[in-house]
């Protein structure tokens, strides 16, 4: 597929760059929500409820995604939100690995660090991921949006798979030094990929018309009053419950 002058907005190369950022987000998340909870239960013999609550905390903070998206709209610049969110996510990923190590000797201190780490992860994912998808929606022409969305999400799943394979090799035989080194390496690479991929990307999107933005609470009430939006939100809620179960 090639870009044409008749199709405004992001071309396929720009869409692939967005997909790389989404894959980078997924690479950090999969380590914190799958590898670390296995280490807590298998290596440290902790109750499964501990990583369960930590991962649940990360998901609970995703309810703030509308607020992050609204804030990015008000600022009219999305690149700082994407880079800032990824930076917080990367730092949280490394801190989560360090916290898991600390749990082995000082459980209370390790859990406190882990709570902070998963709060950082939850906020980082929400701020960067929401803004990234908003940039995709604004920058892609309507006829390309279905294929663009599929491309970005497939690349995110590829990031899950690649990171899982690399992690299984990198931490074998297991040690906490290897685990922390893996988390740091993945976080650094993911952050650098994000910075390079997003550079100049926002300038390729069609300019957004100047408009008066309503306060967040008013905007939320307006959206929720729309029957179609409300039914779709309920559908997503039920779908995610089924997926997580």
Strand content: under 5%
Measured on Cα atoms, how large is the radius of gyration? 19 Å
N- and C-termini, Cα separation:
38 Å
Main beta sheet strand tally, sense and closure: none
From the spread of the alpha carbons, the general shape counts as globular
Write down the secondary-structure element order.
HHHHHHHHH
- Specify the structural class: mainly alpha
Mean pLDDT across residues:
87
The tally of beta strands, per DSSP, is 0
The helicity comes to over 70%
Task: List segments where confidence is low: pLDDT < 50 over at least 5 consecutive residues.
Answer: 1-5
DSSP helix count?
Answer: 9
How does this structure look, described?
This protein is mainly alpha-helical and 245 residues long. 78% of the residues lie in helices and 0% in strands. The chain has helices spanning 12-43, 49-60, 65-75, 79-103, 107-139, 145-170, 176-198, 216-225, 227-244. The longest helix is centred in the middle third of the chain and has 33 residues, at 107-139. The relative contact order is 0.17.
Please tag this protein with its features:
245 residues, mainly alpha, 9 helices, disordered N terminus
